[in-house]
Amino acid sequence: MSVPAVEFSGVSKSYSIYAAPGDRLKELATFHRRKYHQDYWALRDISFEVQRGETFCLVGENGCGKSTLLQICAGILRPTSGAVKVNGRIAALLELGAGFNPEFTGRDNVYLNAAILGISAKEMDSKFPDIAAFAEIGDFIDQPVKMYSSGMIVRLAFAVAIHVHPEILLVDEALAVGDIYFRQRCLRKVHELRARGVTILFVSHATAEVKALGDRALWLDHGRIMAIGNTEKVVSQYLAAMTEKDAQYQAQDHLLHRQGEISAPAEIVEHIPNIDHRYGDGRAEILGIAVCDGAGQKLAVVNPDSAIVVRISFRAKANLERPIVGVVFRDERGLDLAGSNTESEGHPLPPLLAGETCTVDFHLDMPTLYSTSLSFSPAVANGTLDRFGVCDWIDNAVVLQMLPPNGPMYGHLRFRCRVEVNSRLGAGAAL
């Protein structure tokens, strides 16, 4: 039986987190007899094998330990506990630009990386034209790397990695920075390496790429293995968990929105002065209605041409998917003068759960009406303007007298009007 390319046995990795820089010195001063740090475990008890020629993919959220695992595999980090065996020459595409000296030119960095991998300068002379051609960065190859864009760094790093004939290739989200054209070229090259029997450890958030490349996959969550095995199955489990997490986040965000926007009104009105008639399916109940001035003081009469606030409070007695609150205004003859609601005013309410309360304020500029009484009929419905069910409706819950206008008035209603004289024509002037 062939020796695995990569073996992890009970590998864990912890980092020391200090609350303040001085705590590190305090700990050193006590020769570590006193602990001034907290242990953050990036990996916990990780065990798996990657066979030669296998493409092994790692999936998981940011911060789950994927990059730490690859860095341990590359020999950049040492595990806190456990054992790692890597059998073969490694080429790694890890953090952007890792292994490149920003002061050196691209050409110098190519030879530097080759030397680290044990490749002689003479052997690299024969590979360099192919590396430069694949990277396609032109004359920048002889410029300092600090002048490169992130995409140019990835191009050169990938070109080096695939042309040093690695037995094990580590790829950690490096291709996410590249443009579409270069990504496609890189993925084709990865497929070629895979066909040649190169062992590949591949990290990506692009699950389509993981499914296309991976023979097996490992799902990490907070440094622990959640699933390992068939790529399709592991990716499906991971996506299902992420979908559930997103749904929980949206529900929590929605609850906070309701608490911030609805559950903490300035005042809950719990008084209904009058009920001529009441009906509805009972899914919500109007708790109270008040007509106030701009300062929130309840009005006994309504002044012509004034600003008022109609405040309506209600409680959901069942879950309401799309509640609508409205009010209808009638004159002393019972004729509907006007109406308004949250939907028609472009202020839709979020869903309410059974038991939650809501207060809505309607800010109105009253016209001048001929001396009459004015009634307010509040209502709560559930649905849309085209299709809704009335939950609670109270006819004429508040009736107030409209004070008479100043001066004579023609008709029942006087609009606000601004008169402007643009010119004055003299006698005999042409029209």
Describe the structure.
This protein is of the alpha+beta class. It folds into two domains: 6-236, 3-Layer(aba) Sandwich (Rossmann fold), CATH 3.40.50.300; 277-407, abc- transporter (atp binding component) like domain (Coagulation Factor XIII, Chain A, domain 1). The protein is built from eight helices and 21 strands. Strands 10, 12, 14, 15, 18, 19 and 20 form a seven-stranded mixed sheet that branches. Strands 5-6-7-3-8-9 form a six-stranded mixed sheet, with helices on both faces. β6 (168-172), α6 and β7 form a beta-alpha-beta unit. The protein is elongated.
Compose a concise summary of this entry:
The protein contains eight helices and 21 strands. It is an alpha+beta fold.
What share of the residues lie within helices? 25-40%
- Classification by helices and strands: alpha+beta
Unreliable segments of 5+ consecutive residues: 260-265
The named CATH superfamily of the largest domain: P-loop containing nucleotide triphosphate hydrolases
Terminal Cα separation, in Å?
A: 108 Å
β-strand percent reads 25-35%
Mean pLDDT: 84
- Mind telling me the CATH class of the largest domain? Alpha Beta
What is the CATH architecture annotation of the largest domain?
A: 3-Layer(aba) Sandwich
Count of domains:
2
Sketch the major β-sheet: 7 strands, mixed
Per the CATH scheme, the topology name of the largest domain is Rossmann fold
Order of helices and strands: EHEEHEEHHHEHEHEEHEEEEEEEEEEEE
The total of helices stands at 8
Shape verdict: elongated
Radius of gyration: 37 Å
Number of strands: 21
